[in-house]
Design goal:
With 428 residues, the chain is of the alpha/beta class. The protein has 2 domains: 155 residues, Immunoglobulins (Immunoglobulin-like); 202 residues, von Willebrand factor, type A domain (Rossmann fold, 3-Layer(aba) Sandwich), CATH 3.40.50. It is 35% helix and 28% strand. It has 12 helices and 21 strands. Strand 9 and strand 10 form a beta hairpin. The chain starts with a helix and ends with a helix.
């Protein structure tokens, strides 16, 4: 009945048009003429897409690998209903479920939800919203696009946070039992606890022991408010891919774990991302982790050699007092020989330097290969690469530089462990 009534209305509206156009239809079939007329009228009765109003809300940030939602409110101020397909377009790396069916009566609004599952870090910017409004018979449609800006920042995933509880436990142990080994200037009394085998007898508090039922020892905390500067090399060496991700992403993950650990230890943590210019900087933030992930999110590797002199000068300019400078870069001999080594003493004379590098596990696998002649040649090349990295590490160690060279999964915990070892040795 609804279709019959709709056709009757269309026929009534079409009658004047038929009378006007009938002479020009003499050369074509009547059925084709009627179909053409219905298509034209269906198009005229389709709801307008130009008059639609749009507004966005929802997520503005999400961690890489997690899902978020962005809502689009569509209002129809027109006099005809809008029956449409809507595409809320995003870049492919946003992983958007962007096609929606929409029925919008006159004067009403609807909320459309687009789910995003990003596959890359950085700012994912919404493209245009395209609406295709069909007529009541579904024979024709109007289509139009609207700019409805919105940005979702995709943050580093911070996979290494799973290592944080165990390192925090070691930090508490360092602040308590092991910190008693660091006596003298720069330590402060922390608390009392029961004596256990292995404690220094000089830490026994005899007065407290006399009041208690057991021997009590004093615990001490190492001096806090040290300065840790994380330097991300965003030059060419960080662009190489290890597995499914660039070296830069693995370096970020290690930097985040160390930053959170150092902040919990009471140290000040700064960040600098540099190749030939400063791409990101965080200094003295009270909300450290949000500041770091937001600064890291849009970083991309540049296919240029890093200006080591400029990097060192920037670190020295920003960091006046002695600090632990953690440089996350490569251990390739040639770039270091031409860039960092000539000016290494300028940095090590004022700061404790630690270099963290992402190793490729594929190189170690190739070095162990002996299956055929090709595998032997690959193994020889891999052994040469490993030998060069060992030589660079030894040379840096002679200059007092701490080096952590590990595959992506092992780099964050090993870097955190080396930091804790420096704490325990009283070198920070």
């Amino acid at each position: 009945m609804a279709v019959t009534g709709r056709l009757g209305l269309l026929a009534l509206l079409a009658a004047p048009v038929v009378g006007f156009l009938l002479p020009s239809w003499a050369g074509i079939g009547l059925a084709a003429a009627v179909l053409l007329l219905l298509v034209v009228l269906d198009l005229l009765l389709a709801g307008s897409v130009r008059k639609l109003h749009f507004a966005r809300s929802g997520a503005t940030s999400v961690r890489l690998g997690e899902e978020c939602e962005v809502t689009l409110t569509v209002a129809n101020p027109g006099v005809r209903p809008v029956r449409a397909w809507l595409r809320d377009a995003w870049p492919p790396s946003a992983g958007a479920d962007d096609r929606h069916r929409l029925t919008l009566p006159p004067g009403e609004r609807r909320v459309v939800t687009t789910r995003l599952l990003p596959t890359r870090r950085g700012d994912r910017i919404a493209a245009r919203v395209t609406v295709r409004s069909t007529g009541p018979l579904g024979l024709a449609a109007r289509q139009g696009s609207h700019d409805v800006p919105w940005t979702v920042r995709v943050l580093p995933p911070f996979h290494s946070r799973k290592h944080l509880p165990s390192r925090l436990a070691r930090l508490q142990q360092l602040d308590g039992r092991n910190a008693v080994l660091i006596r003298g200037q720069g330590t402060e009394f922390d608390s009392l606890r029961e004596y256990v085998i292995g404690d220094d007898v000089r830490s026994i508090d005899w007065r407290a022991s006399a009041r208690a039922s057991d021997v009590m020892v004093r615990t001490w905390r190492p001096e806090r408010d040290r300065h840790v500067v994380l330097v991300l090399d965003t030059g060419r060496v960080s662009a190489g891919r290890v597995g499914d991700a660039p070296r830069l992403d693995a370096a970020m993950d290690a930097a985040l774990l160390l930053a959170v650990l150092a902040a919990r230890a009471g140290d000040r943590v700064d960040l600098l991302a540099y190749d030939r210019q400063v791409h990101a900087a965080v200094q003295g933030s009270t909300e450290l982790l949000p500041a770091l992930v937001n600064a890291m999110a849009p970083l991309e590797s540049s296919l240029v050699e890093t200006d080591a002199r400029g990097m060192v000068a920037e670190v020295l300019r920003r960091t006046r007092r002695r600090a632990l400078v953690v440089l996350l870069t490569g251990l390739d001999a040639a770039p270091l020989e031409e860039g960092l080594f000539p000016i290494l003493s300028k940095l090590t004379s004022r700061h404790q330097l630690m270099i963290a590098s992402v190793a490729d596990p594929r190189v170690a696998e190739m070095a162990a290969g002996r299956g055929d002649a090709e595998a032997v040649y690959d193994a020889a090349a891999a052994e040469r690469v490993l030998a060069e990295r060992r030589q660079v590490t030894a040379r840096l160690a002679r200059h007092g530089v701490e080096v952590v060279d590990a595959v992506p999964e092992e780099l964050p915990p090993r870097l955190a462990d080396r930091y804790l070892a420096l704490k325990a040795a009283g070198r920070l």
